[in-house]
């Protein structure tokens, strides 16, 4: 199938160099014809024709969550493929849990029995960053549902990714970005943080993230002035993508080209969109 025939949110591309194959993961919704719970993948050799969907994680009866299976992304770390994804169940806070597999095709299985994010926090969209010293971190969103002004947070992880290895640190609040706007209406005090993705560009550490903008769901970029994951983070004045799309990431094709991918439109009929960054030089590793 063609890219435009795939209906998912929060697209994430993993280029698997070993198999010379691109894997596409994302949030698959029941109303779009997918199962109510679980994650599915697509794969391609050329970024044009895609095979799938095929299941990469289908929970069994022992898995704790039963709803809000959101934003899976896959990272290669210490010889295995790790999926960071969001889950929820009534009576429990939404959180990011880590799964793993021997191959990017899955099936992925939970690394632990519970999310890594704080159990009493409403959290989503955890992503992996490994610093120059080899220390893994999770960057995640502390939801506006709980804190009103959505927060972007970071915490160190143990080397095996099984648990937090230190305290959570606040990086910034959504309202600090000059392009972000309140959810619902002016004066609501509700600001969204979504979809962090950390990358290097021209020697600088940057982060894509999404919120509401002047024209709806949008995606902006923040820069770490210190060059470290803990910041201080400074926001670019205008969004990278200003209208009806977001939750993006950057990947490098096997021929060295850079692409930004995001879902657009935001609602309904969301599709993954690739935007060429051929005129820019990006290092999109998580180091």
Write a structural description.
This protein has 1 helix and 20 strands. It has one helix spanning 144-147, and strands spanning 9-16, 21-27, 39-44, 51-57, 67-77, 80-89, 92-101, 109-110, 123-130, 136-142, 151-156, 169-173, 194-201, 204-213, 216-224, 233-235, 246-252, 258-264, 271-276, 282-283. It is globular. Mean pLDDT is 94; it is low at 280-287.
Average pLDDT value?
94
Count all strands and give the number: 20
Order of helices and strands: EEEEEEEEEEHEEEEEEEEEE
What's the story with the biggest beta sheet?
5 strands, antiparallel
Strand order of the largest sheet: 16-15-14-13-20
What value does the Rg take, in angstroms?
17 Å
- Spans of at least 5 consecutive residues whose pLDDT stays below 50 are 280-287
Tell me the β content.
over 45%
Helix content: under 10%
Amino-to-carboxy terminus distance: 33 Å
Structural class: mainly beta
Number of helices: 1
Shape descriptor reads globular
Question: What are the defining features of this structure?
Answer:
single chain; 287 residues; mainly beta; five-stranded antiparallel sheet; four-stranded antiparallel sheet; 1 helix; globular; disordered C terminus
């Amino acid at each position: 199938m063609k890219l435009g025939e795939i209906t998912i949110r929060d697209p994430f591309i993993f280029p698997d160099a070993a198999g010379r194959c691109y894997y596409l993961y994302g949030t698959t919704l029941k109303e779009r014809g997918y199962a109510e719970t679980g994650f599915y993948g697509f794969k391609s050799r050329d970024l044009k024709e895609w095979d799938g969907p095929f299941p990469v994680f289908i929970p069994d009866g022992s898995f704790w969550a039963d709803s809000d299976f959101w934003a899976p992304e896959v990272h290669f770390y210490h010889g295995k493929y790790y999926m960071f994804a969001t889950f929820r169940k009534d009576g429990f806070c939404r959180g990011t849990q880590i799964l793993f597999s021997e191959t990017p095709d899955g099936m992925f299985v939970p690394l632990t029995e519970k999310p890594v994010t704080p159990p009493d926090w409403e959290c989503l969209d955890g992503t992996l960053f490994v610093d120059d010293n080899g220390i893994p971190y999770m960057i995640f969103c502390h939801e506006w549902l709980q804190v009103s002004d959505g927060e972007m947070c970071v915490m160190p992880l143990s080397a095996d990714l099984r648990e937090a290895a230190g305290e959570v640190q606040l990086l910034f609040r959504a309202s600090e970005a000059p392009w972000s706007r309140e959810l619902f209406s002016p004066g609501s005090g509700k600001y969204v943080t979504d979809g962090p993705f950390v990358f290097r560009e021209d020697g600088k550490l940057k982060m894509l993230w999404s919120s509401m903008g002047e024209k709806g769901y949008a995606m902006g970029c923040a820069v770490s002035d210190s060059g470290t994951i803990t910041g201080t983070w400074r926001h670019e004045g205008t969004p990278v993508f200003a209208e009806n799309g977001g939750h993006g990431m950057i990947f490098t094709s096997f021929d060295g080209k850079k692409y930004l991918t995001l879902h657009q439109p935001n609602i309904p009929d969301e599709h993954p969109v690739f935007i060429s960054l051929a005129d820019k030089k990006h290092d999109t590793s998580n180091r």
